[in-house]
Every structure is written in structure tokens, then in C-alpha cells.
Amino acid sequence: MGQEIKCRVEFGQEASEGKALLESTEVLFRGGFRLKIPFQSIRAMEAAGVKLKIQFAEGWAVFHLGSAAEKWAEKIRHPPSRLDKLGVKAGTKVHLINKHDEDFKRELMERGAVLEKSKPDVVFLSVKNKDQLVELAYLTNGSPVWVIYPKGVQIVTENDVIQAGRSVGFADIKVASFSATHTALKFKPRNR
């Protein structure tokens, strides 16, 4: 989601102006104090007018978000699915390269995605190491490519993925948390 709003937040005896960030699995606040509220830790929540009130293990936090309060509450209640973040809709033609986890393949089929090698709408390239990034050089059909790679390991880093994509004429345009263990980085051909 990655939405950011400058606002005032009250938490316990503290109040501060700062930036609130709505991420895909948590709400963050950076100001005179910091808060990190994972969605799974939220015990209660209400949007009242211009305020979003969130109760979690450490107490209540009140975010003065203006007209965005109800929208944020709705996105917290119903966060986008992995396929929503990756832009896969019913009928999307996808090409899977290398080994993908069974949950992902099942989600694609349940969504109504169509496996298509010759003219896909989007390609998903799963890599476990830098050597597998060479596959990017062969993806010349003009489709966007999501490279899925392990998080937080030196075997293949975000910089490795970006350099590999750029070296074959792709522009990196989006990053998404693919799972607890993997990140996805989206590329599109520069000529589009």
C-alpha cells in the first residue's frame, strides 16, 4: 500500500506531529516518538470523523488523518492480497519461470489466471541465486517481469536484481513483499 500522511498522533501521554505510513501489514508513525503497529496485533479499531483510533497491546493510538481515516480503517480491515499487490486479475496471462511455491500457483489458479508462455501479460521469475538472473536477458517479449528472490540474504540482493534487470534494458518500477521469506521486484521494458 505504502500510503503516507503528515498528521498528529496521540499515544498514552505523548502527542506529536509526524508522518503516518500505512504499509501492507502494519501502521507506522515517525515523529516525536515512533510507533509500529502490526495489523495482527490490533485488538480494536474505529474511524470516527477525522480520527482513526487503534487499540493494540501497548494501548490506544489516535491518528488525526482527516478524510483518510475511514479509508485507512478499511484498508487495515481488508488488506490487499498478494495477487492484488502483484496486479493479477482473473484472466491475466502469466508465465512462471523456475520453481514457484505451491501456494502461489494455487492462488493464481483460484484467481482465474491463465498460464501462458508465448504472450503473457506478466512473467514471474523465481531466483535463488545471482546466476539465475541471467534468465532476464531472454525475456524479450515486452511483458513486465516480477523477479521473486529471498529476503535478507547475500546469495542474491536487491542490488543484484536491479543491476541484472537494468543491464538488459528493464526499468525497475515497484517492489512488494511476496511472502515472509521473499521479495518481488517488478521490471518493465524501457522502450514502453
Order of helices and strands: EEEEEEEHHEHEEEHEE
> What is the number of beta strands?
13
Mean pLDDT: 93
Strand share of the residues? Answer: 35-45%
Q: Helix proportion of residues, in percent?
A: 10-25%
Query: What is the radius of gyration computed over CA atoms, rounded to a whole number of angstroms?
Result: 20 Å
* Poorly predicted residue ranges: none
Give the overall shape.
elongated
Strand order of the largest sheet: 4-3-2-1-7-6-5
A few lines on this structure:
By secondary structure, the protein is of the alpha+beta class. The chain contains four helices and 13 strands. It has helices at 69-77, 82-86, 102-111, 158-167, and strands spanning 3-11, 14-22, 26-31, 34-38, 44-48, 51-56, 59-64, 93-97, 114-115, 122-126, 145-150, 170-177, 182-189.
Describe what this molecule looks like in 3D.
The mean pLDDT is 93. The strands form two sheets. A seven-stranded antiparallel β-sheet has the order 4-3-2-1-7-6-5, covered by helices on one side. It has four helices and 13 strands. The two termini are 24 Å apart. The longest helix is centred in the middle third of the chain and has 10 residues, at 102-111. The chain has 192 residues and is an alpha+beta fold. The protein is elongated, with a radius of gyration of 20 Å. 24% of the residues are buried.
